[in-house]
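Today's session is about reading a structure prediction critically. Students often jump straight to the picture, but the first step is always the sequence itself: look for stretches that repeat, for charged clusters, for runs of hydrophobic residues. Only then move on to the predicted structure, which in these notes is written as discrete structure tokens rather than atom positions. Here is the chain we will use throughout the hour.
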Amino acid sequence: MDINLPNLGPSAGTPSQWTDTINPVLEGLIVGETPAVVVQDLKAAANQTLEPYTPVGFDDSGNLVPALVGSVDPADDIKAIGITLFKIVIPVGQNPGLPILRSGCLAKHMIAWPASFDTDAEKFAAFAGAPTPTNIVVREVYFGSTVAAP
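Below is the predicted structure for this chain, in token form.
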């Protein structure tokens, strides 16, 4: 959770008031308490932008890139192993470690699915068989008798 503190340096010694501004996780992403939420820092491929809550997997070099299903050659698919937690812009030539959510019960409609995940079956199976410690369960969220909007 981020807390933005005010810059009070220029007004040192002047009576004033301030309040905390807390930037919470987007409400509704986590929709269950089992499995427990686990975040792991992993290396990402250079020169890419990843949107918040994007499923990611490892490329041939072991770096994170957006997950991919339905390639002409199934060997070219990139198996989802987690999701990003915020927008990430990675410059050319850099390979930073990023916090990736590897475990939790997530709302299907909150995940920023890559275009290749075009059916509900692919979305619900996105993390099935992923390597340990990935343990992500994708759930449909119901409000009364209706399903959450995509």
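Discussion point for the tutorial: The CA atoms of residues 44 and 64 lie 4 Å apart.
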